[in-house]
From TrEMBL:
It comes from Nonomuraea zeae. One of its GO terms (biological process) is carbohydrate metabolic process. InterPro entries: 6-hairpin_glycosidase_sf. GO terms for molecular function: transferase activity. This is Glycosyltransferase. Keywords: Transferase.
């Protein structure tokens, strides 16, 4: 595997001293689209996951954390969109960006190698944990951050309460073996929902909840595997009892599967989950429906999607972070 695939070169290209630009045309930043809390939070997750970060990654974590604390208001909600001239274009809220901010803050509070980053992230996480979102996916993302905090700080009542509420918002899997999913449609980052139930079951010693999350994840892996390779639910989603399109597949879906399967492997010790992580890695390396490499070897950027005509060659923040996140697991696989 090339070091470009596992490195941060394109993430650094997309970042400045304010934050992380959302979009790129091929490898070049599109400043007119500005920054968003969603992507900055995702960036904080992956730079924090590095066990021995280079100085430039610590500086990047500081930049991303500063962005998130600036986006947060006194109620714990977050703004999402900042223009290139540093003007917020929206009001604080608790949509997906709140959930992802909580995921980034929780990861930094638990894992970052710099104590000053951990301390500041914990303060912002605790404030944000006073909020709840009506959206299950936002709660799922926040639940992932809460699980990170609880693994490092088991007596965090704010994190425990948030994780419990996140699992409740997701709900229990359906009884039908053909569709054991809490909702009638798969949309985006689906595996995050299963991962939260797995984490909540693990951290509360609730075997039933853990089993429910593993059942959901096993089914999700099965329906997104074709001929031994990943073929993930496309951007348009897939509704129960409806035809399923093959394209446009998104890297975020592959990265979410890698995250959830890595968590399942750690919790259960079952090697079958590591094999499923390998399938996510392989998807980026060309073992996919188009037999196409899903990252740019020259820039290290992740391509924005897999279409019926091949990769979307734009290299935005979301897809690049999905690549980095998945390849972080590749380096740890036996």
């Amino acid at each position: 595997m090339s070091t470009a695939a596992s490195g941060f070169s394109h993430l650094l290209r997309l970042s400045d001293d304010t934050g992380l630009f959302e979009h790129a045309r091929y490898a070049l930043v599109r400043r007119e689209h500005g920054y968003c809390t969603d992507d900055v939070a995702r960036g904080l997750v992956v730079v924090t996951r590095e066990p021995r970060p280079a100085h430039r990654l610590t500086r990047l974590a500081e930049c991303y954390l500063t962005f998130l604390t600036h986006a947060q208001d006194r109620s714990g909600a977050f703004r999402n969109r900042l223009s290139f001239d540093r003007r917020w274009s929206d009001q604080p809220g608790v949509g997906d960006w709140w959930g992802r901010a909580m995921w980034g803050l929780g990861t930094a509070a638990a894992r970052n190698s710099a104590p000053w980053i951990r301390n500041e992230a914990r303060l912002a996480f605790t404030l944000g944990a006073e909020q709840r979102s009506p959206h299950p996916r936002a709660m799922a993302f926040a639940g992932l951050g809460a699980a990170e905090v609880l693994r490092a700080i088991p007596d965090s009542t704010a994190a425990a309460s948030l994780l419990t509420d996140a699992a409740r918002a997701i709900g229990a899997p359906a009884e039908s073996p053909s569709w054991p999913w809490p909702q009638p449609q798969l949309t985006y980052a689906n595996a995050a929902l299963a991962e939260v139930l797995i984490a909540a079951g693990e951290l509360s010693d609730d075997g039933q909840q853990l089993a429910a999350g593993l059942r959901m994840l096993s089914w999700l892996c099965d329906v997104q595997t074709r001929d031994g390779r990943l073929s993930v639910v496309p951007a348009a989603g897939w509704r129960m009892d409806a035809p399923r399109s093959r394209y446009d597949q998104q890297p975020i879906e592959v990265a979410a599967l890698a995250d959830a399967c890595a968590t399942a492997a750690r919790v259960t010790g079952d090697q079958v989950w590591q094999e499923k992580v390998r399938r996510s890695v392989a998807w980026f390396q060309g073992v996919n429906d188009a037999d196409a490499l899903m990252w740019d070897q020259a820039t290290g950027g992740g391509y924005d999607g897999l279409t019926e005509h091949g990769p979307n060659l734009n290299q935005g923040a979301e897809s690049t972070i999905a690549l980095i996140s998945t390849m972080q697991y590749a380096r740890r696989l036996p």
